[in-house]
Design brief:
This protein is of the alpha+beta class. It is built from four helices and five strands, in the order βααααββββ.
Length: 168
């Protein structure tokens, strides 16, 4: 919260969580979801130079078993989107760095027109020994489609600022 505005009311700036505000074991649900379009998939796939035919070639994809002739959404788009959906609620303005991702899995496919919903569990945290004023927060991001099926899961380690004003 900043000081009062010209009308005397409070001014509140949206931000993510300070290190102290993360609660181990809490699951943060990120809403709204994001419907992934064919244009999203083609743009992301071509921007990242991923020439995999399963993402770009509708005629070829139609000949492949198991996907009913549909092109798959690029799994890196799915991963990027579940992380992106978490930013406003968890890390906007409080994140110092991503330290790493691990245990990434895509147990079910995403197709154009599917809606992606994200949730994040805080799985651990500790103050940094080498960087005063910062702490390591471990997160598990989970993406689900509109049917509730898990389509992506990833563990993430982040470096987050401690509240500069101290505990609230």
């Amino acid at each position: 919260m900043s000081g009062p505005d010209e009308r005397g009311g409070p001014r509140i700036t949206q931000r993510g969580l300070w290190f102290e505000e993360f609660e181990v074991g809490a699951v943060y649900e990120h809403r709204p979801g994001r419907t992934i379009t064919e244009a999203d998939n083609v743009l992301f796939t071509t921007l990242t130079m991923n020439t995999q035919a399963l993402h770009l070639d509708a005629a070829w994809s139609a000949t492949q078993p198991g996907f009913d002739g549909e092109r798959l959404v690029n799994s890196m788009l799915t991963l990027s989107t579940i992380v992106g959906l978490s930013v406003a609620q968890l890390t906007q303005g409080t994140l110092v760095a991503n330290l790493g991702f691990s245990d990434i899995a895509f147990p079910a496919p995403m197709f154009a027109g599917d809606t992606l919903y994200a949730e994040t569990e805080c799985t651990g945290k500790r103050e940094s020994k080498s960087r005063p004023g910062e702490g390591v927060v471990n997160l598990t991001h989970i993406g689900r489609n509109q049917h509730g099926e898990i389509v992506a899961r990833a563990a993430r380690s982040t470096l987050v600022r401690l509240n500069p004003e101290g505990p609230s």
